[in-house]
Design brief:
Number of helices: 8
CATH class: Alpha Beta
Order of helices and strands: EHEHEEHEHEHEEHEHHE
Oligomer: single chain
Number of strands: 10
Number of domains: 1
Distance between the termini: 23 Å
Strand content: 15-25%
Shape: globular
Length: about 230
């Protein structure tokens, strides 16, 4: 199997395991250079992981980029970078680099995201992503006009601007997203899901090929990569 599954008895157990995994990644980076380089998802599920990581005081300073971002001003409650900065507020050694411009302008943000990744071409020490009930990850949504561009493993594009179709009513915004090959350019990739509904979607994706209807299938079936899948009720 191209993935390894970890079933956790509770959300607290999941948080503890992921904090330890990110601490290990930072410890490894500290032995090689001064700072760890992480790509981390926004959303409600991983925020307790980040708050606990800040409290745990990782050995290396952490430079973080969001896996995806909504094209909104940084003062907007839907901004992932702002949510991560709040979660990490207790640790001054953790720096969050936003993919988007302060005002959320889509094309200017895409240019900024690509420039940031161009000057940081090294593999991520760890990537943490979630999955939606429709099988999307980062902001690579089924139905998006340029989904294939975001999933193409032979692409050298690090980030795309994309528009979910249909737009999620709770977050009807254009997005900047890291592409699948950039997310996989990492030492460790952790996929975090909770609940039986999302697990059923994941199981369907695992039983279809990489070009199936769920974008997450392209991640879990990616050749030469082993994704760590973490689930809790």
């Amino acid at each position: 199997m191209p993935w390894i599954e970890h079933d956790h008895a509770s959300s607290d157990a999941l948080v503890t395991h992921l904090v330890n995994a990110l601490m290990d990644a930072s410890q490894r980076a500290a032995g090689e250079r001064r700072s760890a380089w992480l790509a981390l998802a926004g959303g409600h599920t991983p925020l307790p992981i980040y708050a606990a990581l800040a409290t745990a005081r990782p050995a290396a300073s952490l430079t973080v980029v969001t896996t995806d971002e909504r094209c909104v001003p940084h003062t907007h409650p839907a901004c992932n970078a702002t949510a991560l900065r709040t979660a990490f507020a207790g640790h001054p050694g953790i720096v969050v680099n936003p993919l988007t411009r302060e005002d959320g302008d889509e094309q200017a943000s895409l240019k900024q995201a690509r420039a940031l990744l161009a000057v940081n071409p090294q593999p991520f020490d760890a990537v943490l992503i979630g999955m939606g009930a429709d099988g999307h990850f980062a902001s690579l949504f089924p139905g998006a006009a340029n989904l294939a561009e975001g999933l193409a493993l032979d692409s050298r594009i690090d980030a795309i601007a994309t528009l979910p179709d249909p737009l999620p009513p709770e977050a009807p915004f254009a997005r900047i997203s890291l592409t699948l090959p950039r997310l996989l350019h990492a030492r460790d990739v952790h996929l975090v899901i909770t609940g039986d509904g999302k697990r059923r979607v994941l199981r369907q994706a695992q039983h279809e090929d990489a070009a199936g209807g769920y974008p997450i299938a392209a991640l879990v079936h990616a050749r030469d990569h082993r994704v760590q899948i973490h689930w809790s009720p």
